[in-house]
Amino acid sequence: MVEVVALDGDDTLWHSESYFTLTHRRFAELLAPHAEPDALEQQLLDVERRNLALFGYGVKGFTLSMIETAIAVSGGTVGADDIATILAWGKEMLAHPVDLLDGVAETVEALARSHRLVLVTKGDLFHQESKVARSGLADRFEHVAIVAEKDGATYRRVMATVGVPPERFLMVGNSVRSDVVPVIDLGGHAVHIPYHTTWELERAVLPVTDDGDRVWELEDIRQLPALVAELSGTRP
Q1: Which end of the chain has fewer beta carbons closer than 10 Å to its terminal beta carbon, N or C?
Q2: HSE of 37, CA atoms in CB hemisphere, 13 A
Q3: Among candidates 57, 17, 10, which has minimal Cα distance to 197?
Q4: Residue 147, SS3?
């Protein structure tokens, strides 16, 4: 039986990657005199990958990586005005209103009536705290974990904090790499709900378990209460 349902934040409860996609397009237009779009995108991805250990996930690290990439592809000639533009985009992303995905509010409300809920989200602490507070969902979660990385060690800490064994823990999120694989490896359950766009560094293949009943993929978060009820032996 599932006792604790853990939910991811970005692109599971509220929109996030869409704003990154928009900024990628703006960045390609700004740097068009210096690099072709595909080459620029690959260079930015390489810079982001290298910088993860220093800056972590989130808008701030992304903004710094854009600036570093702009300097590199322009041979150091990128102007101060262009750097200021990139910084303005980052500030705009940080200040953007929290936009819940369709069906999220009623789904979280339904789950909270029958299960203990935990929010597990990664990224910049200040920004994520702000998004949780502005989401209107904070009081539905008994614990909020804002983490630097979602790996086995992180999920073990979360489970220990809320006092639940892996076999009674269900993680729900849009990233196979971060929300599914580490939990399955620990013996827990996971639900993948794809978002319409996925950052390249979050892509992974959905795992298949030996017992065949610990990983599910749903098209819409509104399907989640019925699945959780089935797994818990209760009515939705």
Answers
A1: N
A2: 7
A3: 17
A4: strand
Task: Return d(Cα 155, Cα 37) in angstroms, integer.
Answer: 37
- Per-residue pLDDT at 235 exceeds 80: no
Q: What is the CATH number of the domain that holds 214?
A: 3.40.50.1000
Q: What is the pTM of this model?
A: 0.92
Residue 50 to residues 57, 69, 78, 83, Cα–Cα distance (Å): 12, 12, 21, 20
CATH code of 38's domain: 1.10.150.240
Q: Which residue range forms the structural domain that includes residue 196?
A: 4-15+98-232
How many whole angstroms separate alpha carbon 120 and alpha carbon 199? 18
Condensed to tens digits (0 to 9), the pLDDT of residues 88-99 reads: 999 999 999 999
How far is residue 190's CA from residue 205's CA, in Å, rounded to a whole number?
14
Same domain flag for 75 and 164: no
Closest CA to 47 of 31, 215, 33, 142: 31
Q: Is 117 exposed, middle or buried (0-12, 13-18, 19+ CB in 10 A)?
A: buried
Domain count, the chain: 2
What's the rounded Cα separation, in Å, for the pair 81 and 26?
A: 14
pLDDT in tens, 181-212: 999 999 999 999 999 888 888 888 888 776 66
